[in-house]
Amino acid sequence: MFYWLSTYSRASLSLAGIAIAGLAVWLAVTSTGNIAIDQLQQTAQARLALYESTLRAAVDRYRYLPYVVSRNHDIADIVSGNGNADITNRYLEKVNERSGAAALYVMDHTGTTVAASNWNTPDNYLGKNYGFRPYFKESLAGQDGFFYGIGVTTGRSGLFISHPISKDGEIIGVVAVKLELDELEQNWQGGGETVFVSDADSVIILTSRSDWKYRTIRPLTVTERDRILRNRQYSGQELLPLHMDEKPSGDDDIVKIGNEQFLFDVKPISGSDWNLFYLTPMDYVAERRTSALLITIIGSGLILLTVLFLRERELKLASQRKSLEFARIQALNARLEQEIGERRKTEAELRGTQDELVQAGKLAALGQMSAAIAHEINQPIAAIRTFCASAKLLLERGKPEKLGPNISQISALTERMGAITGQLKTFSRKSTGVLEPVNIKSALDNVIQFLSSQLHNEGCVLEQKEFDGKLIVHADLVRIEQVFLNIIRNALDAMDGDLEKRIVVELSNARDQATIRISDTGPGIDKASLGLLFDPFFTTKDPGQGVGLGLSVTYGIVRDFGGTIRAYNRADGGACFEIQLPLMRGDQTS
């Protein structure tokens, strides 16, 4: 099997093995790292979306508040100098207490606070001027303000959202709400993941790592620092850069911060100029790469040692092969002769089995037909007994002249039984009987008349849709009637136990095809059984109630006449059997 190994020296195999092992190690480490990074990126995107939705939910719940407060007439009055400060302060205090914000306050057109929810606290905003804040300037210009910074009064950071106060079409002041997002940051820190938010100047304002807060993603320009100082946005903070080294390994999505490497993903937060960052430590990727490196090296070494061992073993066995070659050929010839004999024996057994299968198929078909005839012949026998009993009664009463109808009925029933039992020959081989024109409507009328007493006894209404024309098909009347008998009897069985039983028979023709639909109001046919209805011995009835041959025989009869049959569930409940048979040309009318 490994004869080719003996043609190479140990040195050449070793060099080739080392080269292949090196390539395998490189491929394994690279592919493992790429797979790990893809997995981390998928996880990061999902986590980033979750963090963004959490942050937006925390902010959006307060966006409406300045607008709602600005619509209050007392607020407009206090800005105009006509309101009651005590009433306005208490109103703001109550609203702020309900909303859960840090503070809610109102400023006049100069930026001086004239009412505040924290009016009764030592560090309240009353009388303080915030006209230098960007959010005040934005709202005074008619826009909603959105600003994050450290409070000049409280020294606590927060998000400021503002809305202009208008009166008679003129902006007279600004209402603002301050949100402190400390609880959100604490939740982030408790999660153990690295996530932070930066503002438009790349200053980190919210983060799961407290030592990164008020650090910058990139060094700030002189213009940016001057603007931040004018706005007193981050008072007391040095705003040192975080020293992010992007693409340390040539990868676009990898960043190095200090001695740590992260796989990062960023998502802009709609409705603001903030960006949300999610950083995944690269330790997991390094561990996967190291594991792949060790496994590949060990595996390659084992493969190389195995190859060398097999080479030595192959060299030892090479000398033995020549001496054993002749013996192997002889053994092979003997085995081939044995296999040829076994195959001949198997072929003979197969021919015998095929003959038995043919005979078994005939017996199975006869068994199916016999069971169907036994199933259908019970009512004629019962009817003959009834007519015989009636004839006996007429004889006992001395009225033999009235026996004629009874005898005619008995004769007709026996002919009917003879016609039914005559089908055994048809199902034992391909029918050679002469087919004749059959009127579908007449055949249906015969079956309905035959089953009328049973339908009456079981409380079933059989409705025939009106059809004025004739549907003439080339078939055998007895077997066509058997098809209708089987389907109607199955419909009766399906509605067993129902309070309302109804069978509808509908005839139609189109494109040289006669269509017969027989539907019922039963529970319908479950999906698992629809594809098996016409298989021999398949039945949904309880054991002892049927052998599963009726629909199989029906299918065979319809197919012999060149037609098709299918079953389906109606939209308004119940099952429907649809039979299509080719019409005889020149005989169909409508």
TrEMBL record:
Membrane topology (UniProt): Multi-pass membrane protein
SMART domains in UniProt: HATPase_c, HisKA
Coiled coil: 329-356
Residue ranges of the TM segments: 12-29, 291-310
Protein location: Cell inner membrane
Gene Ontology molecular function, alphabetical: ATP binding; phosphorelay sensor kinase activity
Job of this protein: Member of the two-component regulatory system DctB/DctD involved in the transport of C4-dicarboxylates. DctB functions as a membrane-associated protein kinase that phosphorylates DctD in response to environmental signals.
One Gene Ontology cellular component annotation held by this UniProt entry: plasma membrane
Protein name: C4-dicarboxylate transport sensor protein DctB
Keywords in alphabetical order: ATP-binding, Cell inner membrane, Cell membrane, Coiled coil, Kinase, Membrane, Nucleotide-binding, Phosphoprotein, Transferase, Transmembrane, Transmembrane helix, Two-component regulatory system
Residue ranges occupied by any Histidine kinase domain in the UniProt entry: 372-585
Organism per entry: Thalassospira alkalitolerans
Catalytic activity: ATP + protein L-histidine = ADP + protein N-phospho-L-histidine
Enzyme Commission code(s) on record: 2.7.13.3
SUPFAM superfamilies listed in its UniProt record: ATPase domain of HSP90 chaperone/DNA topoisomerase II/histidine kinase (SSF55874), Homodimeric domain of signal transducing histidine kinase (SSF47384), Sensory domain-like (SSF103190)
PROSITE patterns for this protein: HIS_KIN (PS50109)
Pfam families: dCache_1 (PF02743), HATPase_c (PF02518), HisKA (PF00512)
